[in-house]
Design goal:
By secondary structure, the protein is an alpha/beta fold. The protein contains ten helices and ten strands. Helix 7 links the parallel strand 7 (163-170) and strand 8. It is globular.
Amino acid sequence: MHYEGNIIRPPNEADSIILQVTTGCSHNKCTFCGAYKNQPFTIKSTNTISKDIAYAAKYFKNQRRVFLCDGDAIVLPQKRLIAILDEIQEKLPWISRVGLYANAKRLKLKNFKDLKELKEKGVGTIYMGLESGDDEVLNLVHKGETVSTIIEQGKKVREAGLKLSITVLLGLAGPERSLVHAKKTGEALSKLDPDHIGALSLMLLPNTQMYMDWKAGVFKLLKPNELLLELKEMILNTYISRGLFYANHASNYLPIQARLPRDKEKTIFLIDQALSGKMGLRPEWMRAL
């Protein structure tokens, strides 16, 4: 496979065929993200993608899913994206589902009919980064979108019959605005009503603006118990019809896997146990991105 630069994929795509159709991120301005800082955004050639699909057809017959990366594969023109999905269906007929990253800015370029067509061609899940439901926080981290736009585009994904997976970031607001960030993020998640929520904890990379702000004393990281309080507030304010809330990423101090709303009370009790010291947290040396 012809991989270039950093390859980032969601945790639950670990067993998928990773097909790189773009490099980098078309936005690449978020102050907390260092994944693609030195990697220009490009759309890979048709020939390279076809060679990778042919390679997968030969060597990856036991894998049932495909994930299109890098940062926002949805940016591909519709005809180009459909051609790739058609080739996957033709050469990898055993594939049951295709997933990809998308940001709200690029999703605005896809109308409802486009998204329905993607579903018909095998796309099952679209992954979006909300990060925060607080516009003040999104503005500070240069997300490039408002909460209302992200909600609007996420709802469009759901209405087209696609599964929606949303990522949020604990600690992104710092200690002063922590609980406001948590509450508003829960409220935004409630409006999005996604199938899956992944909560990660902020870990700073040296190649990011936020890391430099932290070194300069401008930004402060949350302590473990502050992150737990933020997580609790977020869950308390999250009302979804039915979905998974996972905070089991390696960056988190307390691994959580919950089905909401069924497990809400149990999850809050678990967090309270950790806050009271009755449950151990993941040691610092085990935390990672």
